[in-house]
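step=predict obj=Betaine-aldehyde dehydrogenase n=502
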Amino acid sequence: MTAQVNAYEVAERLQRELAAAPLGLLIDGKRVPSVSGETFATLNPATGQELAQVARGNAADIDLAVAAARRAFENPAWRRMSANDRGLLLYRLADLIERHADELAVLECLDNGKPWLFTRAVEIEGSIKWFRYFAGWPTKFGGETLPVSPRSGARILNYTTREPVGVAGLIVPWNYPMSMAAWKIAPAVAAGCCVILKPAEQTPLTALRLGELALEAGFPAGVINVVPGFGEAGAALVEHPGVDKIGFTGSTAVGKAIVRGAAGNLKKVSLELGGKSPQVVLADADLDAAAASIAAGIFFNQGQTCTAGSRLYAHASIADELLERVAAQAAQLRIGNGLDNATTFGPLISQEQFDVVRSYVEIGQAEGARLMIGGQRPADQPDGYFFQPTILADAGPDMRVVREEIFGPVLSALRWTDPEELVRQANDSDFGLSAGIWTNDIKQAHRLAEAIKAGTVWVNCFNMVDPATPFGGFKQSGWGREHGRASMELYSETKSVWVNLS
């Protein structure tokens, strides 16, 4: 049981195993060194110390992985596998993740930094849920027969089929490593694709372990390959002519580069990109509920969340009271090493990200925002990449901290009085991933939900996701929708078949 697990003991064992030898790439069902022989260090964000040396994949390794995926895709053992059996493999993988849940949660904590109890409840449980959900899709995803009216008057049977798109390159970020891998692998293999997963260089460990568990579940060699590496590995995957589809979650800047790189063979591309989500609070809102959720919406995972509610628009009549309550919620967060069961707020992912967040706080103050709380390293955390929960009050709509994605625990707070101006400011963004609305007026809630340009709108809640409901963004927050049938469609092609029965 999770409550009985000593995370420090599990971590000590894992660290011994990780230090024993460099971790290889997972290609064609085997752990292999990189072609170059190069490795790189993955670090514990809570300490800044090395966890493991990992084989550094590059273009040559991507070539091998793509070839392995193509062989697996064309192999009858996979291509002719029944939909039911494909679903059973996904169920078995979910069961194996559940069996190793605590170990995976601690491993994710070591590599990513977020508290292990959160990785257990969110990353691991979420991955189990996603694999089990998509295990049901292979037997339910198909075509249809359509009534057509040919000019010749011939008797025609027309039907459609759904076929896997082929070899899919999946590139996932460091903020939710395990669950983002599940979000992409589950529908891709449910649709019948074979994949190359390229995890973020900061967090390769659970991706490699997931690949091993897939083999243990019975997935044929080459169906799921894992190639850690840096930007050159991702670029090679995007540009590879043997890849039919790219699924990417990450920054908008990298998403634009992926679109350019994918043009060579016009491969299909889906993108889940950045966000600068508004939290809109009306005067009649339940301030206690709103404050708790607003704090969680920006401070969970240290603000390193694409949907983070980083722009707060509070009605002027309740703005001061609301901010005090949000600040009180922040004060209750326990900052520290994620292996400690009492910790509720871990480190940022890297020194680079720490420097970015700190610079934005300085920029916000220089532009005229008032530092209400936070804004620096906690005094009792000299090691690692810890940064305090931060609120910048009295922000203006043209400030960089309001317009640009910080990807850290920084809330920029604005006031409003005019509803039309509120909607204009909420929509005045390059992004459109998500939004939150807080009100007890059901009419106002629906009107605002309709007016705000975002792929997901939460009313009196925030950051709720489910594998059954679509997720994705408007504008520069991405292309396409993940989850549910929409996700299966991302990894498949529609074929129309005409049969003359005359």
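step=describe
The mean pLDDT is 97.
step=end
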